[in-house]
């Protein structure tokens, strides 16, 4: 039986406040970038909607306000 392969999407999750880099392992596969504006960017591949909801649940559990969520072009991680 063949399974249908869904391409992984790249997402950027922007949070209000700085997230300590010690959380990097909790957000496995995501790059943590601390922006000068006092925001944190989580950027990386997300396999599917269930994985995206799992990431958003972790963000909620940290208590950092969600500023934005956006899908990025797939080639942005190779630049």
Describe what this molecule looks like in 3D.
The chain is α+β, with helices and mostly antiparallel strands and 79 residues long. The protein has one domain (9-72): Alpha-Beta Plaits, CATH 3.30.70. Helices cover 18% and strands 35% of the residues. It contains one helix and four strands; from the N terminus they run E-E-E-H-E. The protein has one helix at residues 49-62, and strands at 9-16, 31-35, 39-46, 66-72. A hairpin with a 3-residue loop joins strand 2 (31-35) and strand 3 (39-46). The longest helix has 14 residues, at 49-62. The protein is globular.
Summarize the structure.
The protein has 79 residues and is α+β, with helices and mostly antiparallel strands.
Based on the model shown, name its key terms.
1 helix; 18% helix; 35% strand; globular; Alpha-Beta Plaits; 79 residues
- How many E-type strands? 4
Spatial order of the strands in the main sheet? 2-3-1-4
- Give helix and strand order, one letter per element, not per position: EEEHE
Considering DSSP H and I runs of 4 or more, what fraction of the residues is helical? Answer: 10-25%
CATH architecture: 2-Layer Sandwich
């Amino acid at each position: 039986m063949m399974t249908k392969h869904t391409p992984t999407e790249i997402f950027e999750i922007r949070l209000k406040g700085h997230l300590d880099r010690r959380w990097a392992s909790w957000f496995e596969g995501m790059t943590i970038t601390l922006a000068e504006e006092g925001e944190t960017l989580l950027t990386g591949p997300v396999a599917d909607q269930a994985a995206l909801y799992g990431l958003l649940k972790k963000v909620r559990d940290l208590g950092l306000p969600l500023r934005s969520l956006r899908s990025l072009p797939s080639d942005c991680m190779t630049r």
